[in-house]
């Protein structure tokens, strides 16, 4: 569970990120889940964008993906959301609090 200061620091880092994954009309597919999982394993923080034609909301999708991928929901703004998952291997950690 993220603390307030940690969430704030992650939001600040996420401002500079470009969306690394897109969710389209098909919704959250296995391919999307796998790519987000791989990205989180390598980078710890990901910004995801939901395209116009998709019938899902950012906050609901983010919370569902966070639960499924054992990640933390950071924020949702409009059609974008940010997830964080701490690297298991201490040597691969890039974000420190």
What does this structure look like?
With 97 residues, the protein is of the alpha+beta class. The chain is built from three helices and four strands. A hairpin with a 2-residue loop joins strand 3 (72-77) and strand 4. The longest helix has 14 residues, at 30-43. The model has no long low-confidence stretch (mean pLDDT 95).
Sum up the structure in keywords.
four-stranded mixed beta sheet; 97 residues; alpha+beta
In a nutshell, what does this entry contain?
This protein is of the alpha+beta class and 97 residues long.
The proportion of residues in beta strands is 15-25%
Widest β-sheet, arrangement of strands? 1-2-4-3
Secondary-structure content class: alpha+beta
The span between the termini is: 13 Å
Radius of gyration: 13 Å
Biggest sheet, open or closed, and with what strands and sense?
A: 4 strands, mixed
Low-pLDDT stretches are none
Helix and strand pattern: HEHEHEE
Helix content, binned percent: 25-40%
Mean pLDDT, to the nearest integer, reads: 95
Number of helices: 3
Number of strand elements: 4
Morphology call: globular
